[in-house]
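By convention, the token line describes the chain's fold. To illustrate:
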Amino acid sequence: MNYIKSCEFNIDTACVEVKLTDGSMVSIDCIAVENEYANNMYETSELDYLIYNEPLSYVELLLSGKMEEYLRTNTDYTPLSDMR
């Protein structure tokens, strides 16, 4: 993703703002992304970690279409129904 110049999370809008090398800017609505990809609080927490600590990785996963794969492989949880 060499066309991304910079990105940072704007807490006021709940968006990751991405500046591209051609001068354009894209704003990614993080709430909409969470509603689309996160199926539980553990996946939401993983997305929140990326947003606050690694926004570039967050954007790259989203643009490459690998967000579901990332959440599936990096989120460790046991559903309550399996704990009985």
The mean pLDDT is 91. The CA atoms of residues 37 and 66 lie 11 Å apart. The beta strands are 4-10, 15-20, 25-29. The chain has four helices and three strands.
